[in-house]
Write a structure and sequence with these properties.
By secondary structure, the chain is an alpha+beta fold. The protein is built from twelve helices and four strands, in the order ααααααββββαααααα. Strands 1-2-3-4 form a four-stranded mixed beta sheet. Helix 6 packs across helix 7 and helix 10 runs antiparallel to helix 11.
Length: about 300
């Protein structure tokens, strides 16, 4: 059942990537080439530099952000990079060059932050600026937003809930005659840059995603052999097949490929501890690796 859900997500992601970028499985090299033609060589070179600097377990997320920036730039035009937005002191080009974190997006990487900006700007162009933001961790539908003056039953009010994500609140008349609103969850939608970011990450997976100019490749770096054997054996004991784990893990690329194949996110909660451990193995963090191995051993 979980494997079916994982494949459903990948199928939908490949469909979106085909619609947005023309291919179902756009490799990192193809993505960089396509982005260079739209964003310009200098911007893409800087994006690739930032992606190379990220941990290997985060590289796919950085490249997914590049996919969002590619689609967003196609939609809004390259001048988007030169315009200030939201009263912020730096334009997107300056943010990219300086790798400056801007409030309130400091929990994101620079590429993720820029993709959030362009996804929101594309949503605003398509559906208008949202009247308010709502937190969908609460599924309360009634009266989540103040009604504008002149509101009438049947009016739709555009709200934001995520970067590039929008839904409508529908104005209704309550039984006591007062006006209120109900969230229309069927109206949930994302702008094209946000769809591209999600779909590239899911369709392309964790990797490996080699990038040009890497000699030697970081995916060829050896990993701790003992920890690799322990974590591979744990995966096999907890339901992963031999084809999913692959043969002995010798280098970071072996581990990254295995993480992608086992679909750990669709498994039971104990796999989150395994994910933290294999991430530390790939990223070469011995302190975290020892702590996560101890966590796994305690839970076994």
């Amino acid at each position: 059942m979980r494997e079916a859900r994982a494949e459903d997500a990948r199928t939908e992601a490949r469909r979106l990537i085909r619609d947005l970028l023309g291919e179902e499985r756009l490799s990192a090299a193809a993505l960089v080439r396509e982005a260079g033609a739209v964003l310009g060589a200098d911007r893409v070179a800087r994006c690739v530099e930032l992606a190379r600097g990220a941990p290997l377990t985060r590289r796919s997320a950085e490249l997914a952000s590049l996919a969002g920036l590619l689609v967003g730039t196609r939609e809004l035009g390259p001048r988007w990079w030169e315009r200030a937005r939201g009263g912020k002191p730096l334009v997107p080009d300056e943010v990219l060059r300086s790798a400056t974190a801007v409030e309130p997006w400091t929990d994101l990487t620079v590429l993720e932050m820029l993709t959030a900006w362009i996804a929101d700007d594309a949503a605003d162009r398509r559906w208008g600026e949202p009247a308010a933001a709502v937190d969908l961790n609460s599924w309360q539908a009634e009266d989540r937003v103040a009604l504008p003056g002149g509101a009438a039953p049947g009016d739709r009010i555009v709200l934001s809930f995520d970067a590039g994500g929008r839904l409508d609140a529908v104005v209704v008349r309550r039984p006591d005659g007062d006006l209120g609103s109900n969230l229309d969850f069927d109206s949930l939608r994302y702008s094209r840059p946000a769809e591209a970011q999600w779909s590239w990450g899911v369709a392309a997976g964790l990797g490996p995603h080699p990038l040009g100019g890497e000699d030697p490749s970081p995916y060829g770096t050896p990993v701790d052999a003992g920890a690799a054997r322990t974590l591979r054996a744990w995966a096999l004991r907890h339901g992963a097949g031999a084809a999913q784990t692959g043969p002995e893990w010798r280098v970071r690329g072996d581990v990254v490929a295995a993480i992608e194949r086992v679909d750990w996110m669709w498994r039971s909660g104990e796999w989150f501890a395994w994910w933290r451990a294999v991430s530390a193995l790939v990223d070469g963090d011995p302190v975290q690796l020892d702590a996560r191995l101890a966590e796994i051993a305690a839970g076994s």
